[in-house]
Amino acid sequence: MKKSRKKKNRKKDLFSIEKELIGFFNKHAGAQYTARQIYRAFMASNKKSKHYINNALDKLMREGKISMIGKKFLLTTSVDTYQGVVDFVNPKFAFIIIDELEKDVKVSVDNMKNALHDDKVSVRVFNSQSYKPEGEVLGIIEKAKRTFVGTIEISSRFAFVVPQSKRMHNDIFINTSSIKNAKHGDKVIAEIKEWREGDKNPIGVVKKVLGRAGDNDAEIHTIMFEYELPFEFPKQIEDEANRIPDKITKAEIAKRRDFRDITTFTIDPLTAKDFDDALSVKKVGADKWEIGIHIADVTHYVKPNTILEEETYKRATSVYLVDRTVPMLPEKLSNGLCSLRPKEEKLTFSAVFTLDSNGNVLNEWFGRTIIYSDRRFTYEEAQQIIEEEKGEFSEELIVLNSIAKKLKEKRFAHGAISFESVEFYFELDEKGRPVKLIPKERKDAHKLVEEFMLLANKKVANFILNKKENGDPKTMVYRTHDDPDPEKVSVLAQFVQRFGHRIETE
């Protein structure tokens, strides 16, 4: 009889505490409390009273009436569920980027459910309207990646791969039977196969050994893998490129403006393997020069809705590393058909201007062309001819340089800013390892090429802007410069004022 009464009283006490806890959380809606803070609020100072509160908290959590984030409790009505992408900023916590919320949601590593950087996750958000919302990951919707590059550390019974990425904070456990032929300290690519909840480290296998850490090829391949740069083109892409005919037909030439008899040349770095742009120059009257800026007509070869176009779209651009280039196009195009090599006819797209010696544009034309490059100059060769005023095509180079300087003067008169900075290039040894860092000197030869490319870009943008389609401007990609942030301008104004400069911020 006494035992039954005790059990009944215990249930009554638990129910009473649950009610009081719910009342407490309702009164402080949205607030989060640790167990210690709750004990203090309920003046629970002994083991028995704390035990009752712990039991009540556990029951309320099982019933879904309250939730726990980290070591803090809060009312479940303060919780919303969203989908977002993980931004793993450091080993202790991540942010979940959610389109619907203005603020990113902070999640401690204990509540990540083994989600990694860039994974798409479902997340429970506590106090989504607060200044610093927090939450917990409920599950992984889509994994961003399962393979990571890193350095393998091998012991007698197991191995770990220490990932290269600063966004991957967990070493990958590798069984010694799954290390392929890797040796301690090698750079490898590892794939995560399993990561049980509660385990500190994922379990994986070595997929590929890149080589010894510190070796040039191993380090370059590590960089390429880390930034998802492709090592090679798929065979079907190479095959499609190789099927493109080399010969330019008479029918194609007839559709284009012919520049083959006009002096044309390229000016590029000494180490350049492909030549993307060329300049043509011809005197067309007293103080009148026709100057053409030509780029390879890639669209003639890369047709819409082909696998070659899909691959080009994925790569977006060529990437230049210290000792190699990861090209956007297969070699037949990048170093062949679309490279404006000397003594070869090439299909191009051109911006052609008639200018006077003061840099005034008297006429402009844009369209498809065919060119024949007479000479490949390095920057150093072109610079020497400009300085000495003699050499092959010296008259053309001197005219181009003179007009380029006038164009630059006009740009600066209209508010252009010179962002001059020192660039460097690496001198490599026979194994491709950097041995010397050499500053690049930007002289007139560099600047004249830049100046005419800027002129072409500006005039093409204006041309497209003024083209109408049903009375509206045509759709086009523009690089725009919005008004600067007033707060940042104010900070800058205060900083430069110390050096005697004044910036009007109003």
Major sheet description: 7 strands, mixed
Helicity level: 25-40%
Stretches where pLDDT falls below 50 for ≥5 residues?
1-12
The number of helical runs is: 12
Give a description of the structure.
With 506 residues, the chain is an alpha+beta fold. Helices cover 30% and strands 30% of the residues. It is built from 12 helices and 26 strands. The chain has a 7-stranded mixed β-sheet. A 5-stranded antiparallel β-sheet has the order 6-5-4-7-8, with no helix packed on it. Helix 1 (2-27) packs across helix 3 and helix 10 crosses helix 11. The radius of gyration is 33 Å and the shape is elongated. The N and C termini lie far apart (85 Å).
Brief sketch in words of this structure:
The chain is of the alpha+beta class and about 500 residues long. The protein is built from twelve helices and 26 strands. The chain has helices spanning about 1-25, 35-40, 45-60, 215-225, 235-240, 250-255, 305-315, 330-335, 380-390, 395-415, 445-465, 485-495, and strands spanning about 35, 65-70, 70-75, 80-85, 95, 105-110, 120-125, 135-140, 145-155, 160-165, 170-175, 185-195, 205-210, 255-260, 265-270, 275-285, 290-295, 320, 325, 345-355, 360-370, 375-380, 425-430, 435-440, 470, 470-475.
